[in-house]
Amino acid sequence: MKGIARHIRLGRVAAFGLAAFFAAAMLSGPAKAEYADVVINNYADAAGMRPAVFPHWFHRIRFRCKVCHADLGFKFKAGGNQITMAKIIEGQFCGACHNGEVAWSVENCDMCHSGIPGTPTHFHGSTVQRLVAPPYKGLDATKQVK
Amino acid sequence: MVRKSISSYALGALLLAFGSSAAIASDEGSVFQSEGSWMVADVSTANTFNRNLKKDKDPNAPPPEDGIHDAENPGTHILQAPKESYVGLPTTEFGNHVDWVKALDDGLLNPRWERLDPTAEPFVLDLDIVRPVKASVPDVVFPHRQHTLWLECSNCHPAIFVPQKGANQISMSAILLGQKCGVCHGKVSFPITTKSCRKCHSKPKPADWKPPLSEATLKNPWK
Q1: Contact A128 B176 (CB under 8 A)
Q2: What was the ipTM of the complex prediction?
Q3: Which range marks the domain in which residue A20 is found?
Q4: Cα separation, B197 vs B190, whole angstroms
Q5: Whether residues A64 and A132 fall in one domain
Q6: Where residue A77 sits, what CATH number does that domain have?
Q7: A102 with B85: Cβ contact below 8 A
Q8: A82 Cα to chain B: minimum distance (Å)
Q9: Which residue, B94, B27, B86, B93, is CA-closest to B62?
Q10: A57 vs B82: CB contact, 8 Å cut-off?
Q11: For residue B21, what are the CA distances in angstroms to A18, B28, B39, B48?
């Protein structure tokens, strides 16, 4: 009888520990943005704007790759196009469609400039990003388990 | 009995401590790294249990919860959530978890080929290129059809692939580092995972295939 009670208590404690583990893991999990989202932060942070986030998934439902990557001259490289607002307003790059005619116009600043400030230019979820080890960053001394 | 119950609580506390420290470690692992400035692997983050086998917990998260959009930005909440768009599209186990080529073939999507002309049709080239592979994995069949549905010849030729037989050295390491096929595969089109090998390596080796052996091995075989 004693043995069974101990068994149940142990089980409960273990379950509590596991639940806490999963809750903690879910709360502070890594970024899980959509595959192929591109953060472009060539000039935004320095200009006091949030970095721009480009969702490939949204655009490929509406246009084939060729429209932007051949006709509009976008290079196959995150941050490799030196896009500025001046170029967009002139009708280059994003401005070819984001002109109020094909898609919404540039006055909707915060729909593109919607990234977390300080996020560097990168291709979210790319294989290179996943394979190369992230840089070492020591654990916060206040969070360390003693 | 009392001592035993204390020890069981200690076990619980240990599990809790392990849980929170593991969570911190995974947080450290999510630090962004821009391409071009990589650092050497370090023990603290590289030693988490096989990070390449990690499963996406919640693929296709809505923008405010995806970890790269700023939830405090009002515009973030206007943006469409991917899951809303993916309803009814064929699924896969990798990338966006959408089979884009099948969606196109099934007529579920019809993205524009010209920016302003919804009726323009792509120039589709139905030509398969078979690339023999030295290793024992099945040979590669490159289908032009699926690629020309999305892209123009000039996207790949001649900058990425020289349009000539035998002129292109391709290796999995180059692809994984973002060259050759890896310019798109692993970034926007289906990624290289253990579940997607067979999408390219699809032609079984001939029945009389033998691994290519060096002169030295042929002269002095192990046996």
Answers
A1: yes
A2: 0.73
A3: 1-29
A4: 10
A5: yes
A6: 3.90.10.10
A7: no
A8: 16
A9: B86
A10: yes
A11: 13, 11, 23, 11
* Secondary structure class of B8 (helix, strand, coil): helix
A45 and A4 belong to one structural domain: no
Give the DSSP per-residue string, B16-62: HHHHHHHHHHHHHHT----TT------HHHHTSTTGGGPPPSSSS--
Query: For helices A2-27 and B2-29, what crossing angle results, to 10°?
Result: 20
One domain for residues A18 and A80: no
Q: What domain count does chain A have?
A: 2
| Same domain membership, residue A72 and residue A1 | no
Residue in A18, A35, A121 closest to B34 by CB: A121
A78 and A95 share one domain:
yes
Nearest to B56 among A17, A32, A113 (CB): A32
Q: What is the pLDDT along chain B (223 residues), one digit of tens a residue?
A: 444 444 444 444 444 444 444 433 344 444 444 444 444 444 445 555 565 556 666 788 999 999 899 999 999 999 999 999 999 999 998 999 999 999 999 999 999 999 999 999 999 999 999 999 988 899 999 999 999 999 999 999 999 999 998 899 999 999 999 999 999 999 999 999 888 999 999 999 999 998 888 888 888 877 6
Instruction: Give pTM, 2 decimals.
Output: 0.74
Q: Which of A17, A35, A55 sits opposite B95 (nearest CB)?
A: A35
Among chain B residues, the shortest Cα distance to A80 is held by B35
Q: Which amino acid is at B6?
A: I
